[in-house]
Each structure stands twice: as C-alpha cells, then as structure tokens.
Amino acid sequence: MLKTIIKREILEYLKSAKFVSGLLITVILTTVSTAINVQDYTMRHQDYLDAKKELKSNGFEISMFREPQVLSTLVRGKDRDLGNFLKFSVMNIPSRLTGYQDVEQRKYPSFSGFPAVDFAFLVRVVLGLMVVFLAYNAVSEEKSNGTLKLVMANALPRDKLLLGKLVSGLAVVLSSLLISAILAFLILLFHRAVSLSGADGLRIAGMMAVSALYLSVFYALGLFISVKADRPATALMILLQTWIFLVIIYPNLSVTLAEHLCPLPSEEALQRQYSAVYQKYSDAMKRANEAFDKNPRQFVEIWSTIAAENRKIDQEFARRQTQQMKWAEFLSALSPAPLYDQVMNRLARTDVREYERFMEGVNRLWQKHVERSRLRYTDPEAYKKTVLPDFSYRSDSAVDSLAATWPQGLVLLLFSLILFVLAYTGFLRKDLR
Amino acid sequence: MKTIIRREFLEHIQSLQFLALLALTVILFAANGLIFVRSYQQQNDFYQKQVAMKENSPSTRVTYLFRRPNPLIFVAEGGNKDRPSGYSLHPKGALVAEPMNPRTFKLPDVLPLDWSFIIGILFSLYVILLSYNAISGEKEQGTLRLVLSNPLARVKLLAAKYFSLLFIVLVPLAVGALLSLIIVAALAPQILTLANVSRIFIAILLALAYVSLFIFLSLLVSALIPRSSLVLLTLLAAWILFAVIIPSSSIVLVEKLSAAPTEAQAAKMFEPMVQKEVWAKIKDIATKAERGEYKSEEEVKEAADRAFEEGQAKVVAFYENYDKAEKERTRAAKNLSRLSPAALLQYASEDIVQTGDEGEEQFLRQLREYSRVYDQYILKKVGKLVRTSNWSFGTEISLHGKTIEIHSPEPQEYQGDKSDFPKFSERRTPLAVSVKSALFDLSGLIVWNIILAGLAFSAFLRADVR
Questions:
Q1: Chain B residues near residue A48 by CB distance under 8 angstroms
Q2: Which of A257, A273, A310 is nearest to A91 (CA)?
Q3: Could you say which of A278, B5, B14, B390 has the lowest number of CB atoms within 10 Å?
Q4: Which residues of A touch B107 (CB under 8 A)?
C-alpha cells in the first residue's frame, strides 16, 4: 500500500508545472553560477600564484599569502573579502590581511551587501522555495478537493498516508538536489584550474548531507502547515510568510541584535591604548633611535617589544570581534537558514574560523622571526644557523570540519523531526470532512 | 470604478498577507530608526572629536579631513560601513583614505536594514503576495466573468485593481516611514531639517514608483497565466532574479570581462617601476657626480630632488590610473546591474540622500578643491611644495672627493604662526544636484512602470476571461 501511494505521489509531483519549472530554474542557475564562480576562483588563484612568485619576502619584511579555497566555487562565504596578503617586520605586524598592494582591501562597497549566488544560495533560497511549493498542498488540496475523504475510505491507516507523502516528497526534492549537485560537481571536475582532492570529496558529501537536512526541515514544515490549514491558498501564504521570516528577516535581525548586544570597543579606545604603549616606551625609543648605529640590538629590542604590545591590543580586539560573531551565530540558530550557512561555510573553509587559523599561523611565524632577529645581535653564529621556516598553518582537516559541524546538523535534524511529529499528530486528529 | 477600488481595498485589508506585512513593517521600520540613529550618533561623536583634535594641530606636512557622517543613512546606507571616515591630504593633492575599517567584518554578511532594503527586497515580495491572484484568482473562481458582464470597461477594472493595490501598499509604507521618522525625531531631532525632510520625501516617492512597477508586473503575469500558483511561482522567480541574481552576478562578470590588471599584477609592477623611475636616475646622478659634471653640492641635491620628485610623480600617476580603472569597473558593474529595478531603487535612493558612491565622489571633489588652497598655503609659508614620499631613502654621493648625503625630499613643517591655516568646511550637496544624479535611475524606474503598465493592459484586454 505504502508503495502505491509513494508511486502515485511521485508521479503526480513529476508531472506538475511547479516541479518542472523549479527544476529548470535550478539547473540553469546551478550551471551559470558555478561557471561564474569557477571563473572567479581561477582568477583569484592565478593572482595568488603570481603574487607568491613576484612579491617575495626580503630580509626585513616577510610576505605571506592566503590561498583562495577551492570549495569557494560552491560556497563563496567570506573567501573573497577577508584579504589575501600580509607583510610583517620585526617592528610591525598588521592586525588584518590586506590586498596584494599592501593597502586595506576596500573594493566595491556598493556591492558588499548583496549575497553571493553560489550553490549554497541555490539550495537555501531557490530549492527552499521549490520545497515550499511542493509541500503546501500535500494535504490541504486533497482536503479541499474532497479526495482526502475518498482515500481514507479505503483500508489505509492515516500514518501510512502521511508517511507516503513525506517519503515521496522528499524523494522528489532530494533528487532535484542531487541533479543540481551532480551538475555543479561535473563542472568542477572538468575545469582545468580546479583540482579536487579526496578530502574535498568528503567535504562535498558533508555539504550534500546538510543540504538534504535543510530541505527536509522545510518539507516537514510544509507538511505541518498543509495539515493544519484547510485551504491550499492559506497554506501557501502562511508557508511563504514563514519562509520570508526565517530566511530573510530573522538572520538579518539577529546579526543586528548581536552587533548591539555585544559592542566592540570604539576606535578611540583602541587609539588610546596604542598611544599609551608608545608613551610608555617613548624615552627608550628615542634613545634607541639615536644610538642605532652603535647599538642596533637595543633598537630591535625596543621596537619588537612595542610591536608585541600592539599585537596584544589587536588580538584582544580580534577576540571581541569573534565573541560578537559567536553571539550572532547563537542568536540566529533558531532559524534553519543561518545554521545551514554556518555548516556550509565551515565545510568549504570559507568562514572566519579558517581565517583565524591562518592568522594564528602568521602570529607564530612572526614570533619566530622576532626571536631570530634578536639573535642577530646576541649570537650571530646561531643567527646564521637558524633559518626562518616557511609559512604554514593548521588548516581544518575534512574530518575536523565534519566533527565540528555535527551539532548544527543535529539541530537541523531535530527541527525536521519535531515538525514531522507535529504534522503527524495533527493529521491523526484532523477532521477529514 | 470607485466601488471597485473600495471593494478590493477592503478585501485586501482583511487578508492575512496584509496583516503580516503591517506587523513586519512596524518591527522593521522601528528597528531601522533605532539602529541607524544610534550608529549616526556614534559616528558623529567620533567625527566631532577627530575634527576638534586635528584642528588644534595645523600642519604644512599633512592635514586630516573627515567626512561629516550622513544623518540619512537610515534611508539608504550605501555601503557606509565599508567607506573611509575621512582622508589625509598631503601636499600636491595626494589623498590617503583613513580607514575606519569594517570593524564588524567577522559577522555574517547581511544587507543593512535601511529603507532601500525594506522596500527593495521585502515590499516587492509582499506586493507579489498581495497581487499575484488579482486576475488569475478571479478567473479561477469564475467571478471575473460575472464582473465583466456588467457594463464595465476592462481598462477601468484593471486600473481599479492597480489603484487599490497601490493604496493598500501605501498604508504600511506610510505607517512605517512615519514610525521611523518619529523615532528619529525623538532621539535626534536635529536630523529632521527641511532639506533632509524633502530628501526623505523624494525617497518615499521613489519607493512608490518601485512598488508600482511590481504591481504592474504582477498584474501582467496574472493576466497572462491562468493558474494562480503558477503565477506566483513565475513572480517569485522574477523577484529572485531582480533582487539577488542580477546585482550580485554583475560584479563578477565585469571583473572577468575587464582588461584592467588584477591586483597582483598591479602590485608586481611596483618594484620594477620604482627601480626604473627613481633609483636608476639617482644612480645616474651619482655617476655624473663622480665624473665631476656638477659644480656644487647644491646642484647635486637639486638634481636628486628633481629626479626623485619626477619619478615619484610617474609611479603615483600609475596608481591613480589603476584606481581610476577600478572605479570604472565598479561603474560598469553598476550599469549592468541597472537591469534590475531593485538596483535602480537602491542607487536612486543613495543619490538622493548622498550616501553611496556618488556621495563619496562629491566629498572627494571638495577635497580636491581644498587641496589647491592647501598647496597655496604651503607655498606661501614654506616656499616650496614637496610630495610626501611613500618610500624614503638616503645615500651618499661623492663629488670632487667630498661625500654628500642625499635624502629623499620631505615636506617641511612651518614653524611660525599658523593661525591663518585655511579651514575646510564640507558643503552639503544641494538637493537639485542630488536629484540630477538620481535622474537616470529614476527615469529607469518610470520606464519600467510604463512598459509593464502597457504590457499588463494589452495582455488583459486580450485575455480570455471565460
């Protein structure tokens, strides 16, 4: 019996105009957006290689480059905006990455607000809307047509009917997800500039799983509302309103709220801290500058101490920024859309956490550089023997990323289970006449 | 016709969509007022303190010019948080952005909660939800046939539907705008000057033109497609295209198509250029000096200063061109995104309240004007204009067996009385100029209205109403 229902439902979905047009839009958008994003990635990667070759470190200043992430072709995240270059010396270490021209990246503020069109966006918005359209009339239309009464007149338990609807709907939704994912994957696979490793494959699999979870939350929500509302038009309206609230408004409000609940120290407060450091060392600095020719060691000593103290201020500020971000993440976790984004960005390594790991690596190298530069005047022999290691940082492994994102995945799973249970109990009590 | 408008109006006002829209409007516009007034006040405090601080220390080497915070960011934020709070001006018109860097860069990217977001993204969506079944719904129910069996011209029916929808959207828009303004008036009454209020009023008119084109679009699709759910699907697809896909794809597309060097390419040209334009010439002078081609120390120093100055001017010109190319690219991307009415609304609102690119450009124009005054002042006090060097150097040249120390020229500080230091006062762009810069986008919105209205009417006149 269950099989019959599933078969019937699937066939009905496949014939419907909304499914065909939804799939068509998704397929076109996946192809276009992935192609555009791959081009963009290729350009950025070429820029990275060029810069690495041309803008070498000299003895005084050390250059570091952040490689664009391959999977930013699927989930752009913050990969484009976090900067890609940093240059430090014993005397100075910037608090943020810059553009290759060593000036703060300040590109296109007129476009900074628009969300990127990537695979994550297609799932979150386009496929999400398609799910809403598929689910809204699952029960409500049968009720308003009167067919629900007829179906239930057969010896068919209610739970089986709803389960059949759930399974068939999910099958249709997930197969369209799979189609667009395969399409995007093929574009990545056959593009010369993109090379995917096995770990990337694991990450992509994780992305698929969380995309499926995200879509099933909305499908379960659709079923629930479809059970509760008797008229399909009402169900659709309630669902769309909920969708707008969860996907557009709530994430926006929660970020704004976090910004105000957890404010950053003002620019002036920061400036005051910096100038306090300079003031503390100003006499010593003057002496060191004057005696540079006679006593270069003192010069390096004092300037690196100042740089280290400034670094501490920067790190404290960075910590506050991270705290603010965590608040925003926490507040927005009630909606599936930001949860989904968090997982996708983490899996694609296009999030702020990856940037922070990079910056930690930078910090370690800087400390080594300072130690080594001091040796130059205390122990020239040892200085000659030590070499500054190449820059590296502990990036998230695929397993780490997957392990770190399971709570969010679990919450998504819980959301869909709760909504399905609600739909289920609602349907058992429903007046079918 | 009045009867129809009234009937439709009453019908909508009772609907769920309308109530949801109203509730949402109240929340969002209230949040808008609170957030932006606070951030304006913070920016203004920062600005006042900075200006007071810099005014006490006039200098002939560099001066800091801060941009007065725009009180109307709540209408259109215009990328305000990513723009510099001011510039440092060096002799010879060199401007360096003083970054109040996007301090909140770790937060998830969301659109600012300004009017152009609330109206451009949300109101358009709600217009679609309110009006998608205006014709197709009546057709499905069969009431369209009944209505048209009365002696009522189709044009009149459609016009009545259009106006009732416009009024129904006008209600939350007016309520929201008023709420936002009340909050602004309560917290920072100095913002609401006559000039600002007229700008706000024009922004509301823009919003109406925008909302109206979405009503026409809905009526058009609703007249063309007989099934309501399909109408809604088509309209939502159009909305995604307009509100997200066109604006965010245009920048990547233009970047791909433009011939300007990428950042890394430009960066790697730097070293060789400095080598060729500056160091090579200084070396020349050193060889000439060794050969004894110069008579005095003064002459050598003068030659070195000139070589340095000329070389640096060339490097600076290269970067200015690069900057210009980048701005050109942004402009091209903006033009491409103008296909979308949501982008038109945003750019027009930014121009009217003077945020966004146009606002920054106007400020830069004033800075360039002031830089001439500043240069004259330096010339008067110090006697010569020297560009601030981004890379200083010192070397030794031997002339007739004597060693001469050569340094890169640095701007001089005038030690005497600087009470006549020229003041920079930022002028607010006149309203007429703002309107003029918004004219193109405004006419774009009107053209969209005319085209969609024409199409909607012709589609409805030919529609099979059975």
A1: 264
A2: A310
A3: B14
A4: 255, 258-259, 324-325, 328
- Is ipTM > 0.95 here? no
| B400: region left, alpha or beta (phi > 0 left; psi from -120 to 50 alpha) | left
Mutate one of A87, A110, A127 to test the B interface: name it (highest B CB count within 10 A). A110
pTM assigned to the model: 0.89
| A380 CA: distance to closest CA in chain B (Å) | 27
pLDDT on residue A109: 60
Q: Hey, where are the domains in chain B?
A: 2-258+337-365+430-462, 263-334+382-407
Whether A324 sits inside 8 A of B106 (CB atoms) is yes
Cα B71 to Cα B75: distance, rounded to the nearest angstrom? 9
Confidence of residue A341 (pLDDT cuts 50, 70, 90): very high
Could B356 and A39 be called an inter-chain contact, meaning their C-beta atoms sit closer than 8 Å?
Answer: no
Rounded to the nearest angstrom, the minimum Cα separation between A31 and chain B is 13
Please give the pLDDT value at position B289.
83
- pLDDT tens-digit readout, B4-40: 888 888 888 888 778 888 888 999 999 999 989 988 9
More confident residue, B54 or A335: A335
Pair of tokens at residue B319: 């970067």
Residue of B nearest to A50 (CA): B264
Q: How far is CA B242 from the centre of its chain?
A: 18
pLDDT at A174 over 60: yes
Identify whether the C-beta of residue B35 lies closer than 8 Å to the C-beta of residue A256. yes
In a domain, A433, yes or no: no
**Counted domains in chain A:** 1
pLDDT-based confidence at residue A202 (cuts at 50, 70, 90):
very high
Between B42, B247, B268, which is nearest A50 by CB?
B268
3-state secondary structure chain A: CHHHHHHHHHHHHHHCHHHHHHHHHHHHHHHHHHHHHHHHHHHHHHHHHHHHHHCCCCCCCEEEECCCCHHHHCCCCCCCCCCCEEEEECCECCCCCECCCCCCCCCCHHHCCCCCCCHHHHHHHHHHHHHHHHHCCCCHHHHHHCHHHHHHHCCCCHHHHHHHHHHHHHHHHHHHHHHHHHHHHHHHHHCCCCCCCHHHHHHHHHHHHHHHHHHHHHHHHHHHHHHHCCCHHHHHHHHHHHHHHHHHHHHHHHHHHHHHHCCCCCHHHHHHHHHHHHHHHHHHHHHHHHCCCCCHHHHHHHHHHHHHHHHHHHHHHHHHHHHHHHHHHHHHHHCHHHHHHHHHHHHHCCCHHHHHHHHHHHHHHHHHHHHHHHHHHHCHHHHHHCCCCCCCCCCCCHHHHHHHHHHHHHHHHHHHHHHHHHHHHHHHCCCCC
Beta partners for B355? none
- Whether A97 is covered by a domain: the verdict is yes
Q: In chain B, which residue's Cα lies nearest the Cα of A76?
A: B109
Asked if the C-beta of A264 comes within 8 angstroms of chain B's C-beta atoms, the answer is: yes
**Does residue A151 contact residue A142 with C-beta atoms inside 8 Å?**
yes
Closest Cα in chain B, distance from residue A157 (Å): 30
Which among A6-15, A311-320, B90-99 has the top mean pLDDT? Answer: A311-320
Tell me which residue in A43, A96, A253 faces B31 most closely, judged by beta carbons: A253
Task: List, in order, residues 6 or more apart from A195 with CB less than 8 Å away.
Answer: A70
* pLDDT value of residue A138: 78
Sorting pLDDT into bands at 50, 70 and 90, what band is A43? confident
- Pick the closest to residue B134 from B63, B62, B61, B218 (CA basis): B218
Burial-class residue B415 by CB neighbours within 10 Å (0-12, 13-18, 19+).
exposed
Q: Does A54 touch chain B (CB under 8 A)?
A: yes
> Which residue range(s) make up the domain with A390?
2-428
Residue A231 lies in a domain: yes
